[in-house]
Design brief:
Oligomer: single chain
Number of domains: 2
Distance between the termini: 40 Å
Helix content: 25-40%
CATH topology of the largest domain: Rossmann fold
CATH architecture of the largest domain: 3-Layer(aba) Sandwich
Shape: globular
Amino acid sequence: MARIFITGGTGYLGRVLVRQASLGGHHVAASYHTQAPPSDEAIWLSLDVRDALAVEDLLDRLRPEVVIHTAYRQGGPDLLPVTAMGAGNVARAAAAVGARLIHLSSDVIFDGEREGAYTEDDPPSPVSAYGAAKARAEALVTAAHPGAIVVRTSLIYGFAPIDRISQFVLDVATGRSPERLFTDEIRCPIYVEDLAAALLELCGLSYSGPLHVAGAEALSRYAFGAMIARAWNVDPSGIQGALSAESPVRRPRNCALDSSRARRLLRTRLRGVSEVLRDLGRLR
């Protein structure tokens, strides 16, 4: 079993990673920053990834075999310091101790203007501040740790507990939020349990470079929202559609990811939303 260190262990994906890794018999350490640790399934360590010396010191003491970097900020003044520069700090420290690195990236590194799904060979072309920060993180990680896996994924959803995207959908469907869901913005949502299992499986593989790990089903945000609402026994008719193309802020529209390379590498099934809901008995 491996010695695994997970950054962002108190995040939505991080918590599932900690649980699955612990149940799998791995020796798990995880970091937290603003949220208190939720369990005793890991050795919990406070860490600010913006502090390069602190990151270096912690990994030098832990000597993990694998680092899974999930910590990030999606906006605000810490967007670049945490999401981009923090990723570079983790990559340099992981390389210094000879640890395998799995870095979490995003589908929004692309501009969303192409036909069909993006492959690992397509160059980043972000149009949002978050996408630019994630693209910068990829560049820093690759430069500092050439053997790293850069996992690009999509919308992460789950049920125990509900994720923030699904909760937003329910708020829209029930009238608690006046927002609308885009009918022309395409993503490949992935179930958090599938993503965590895929990341842990990658710990034992020799692959390096970018890898798309997303759900098998490309859906508009509107279609995804309607499916999630039904899964929670909420009438989706309260959801109104809108066009991302008409938004005053430019957003990437078609961010569909081609995950065929990952499907060939992994035993873990990267299920589409329909299959997940059917397997969980939530398909209505």
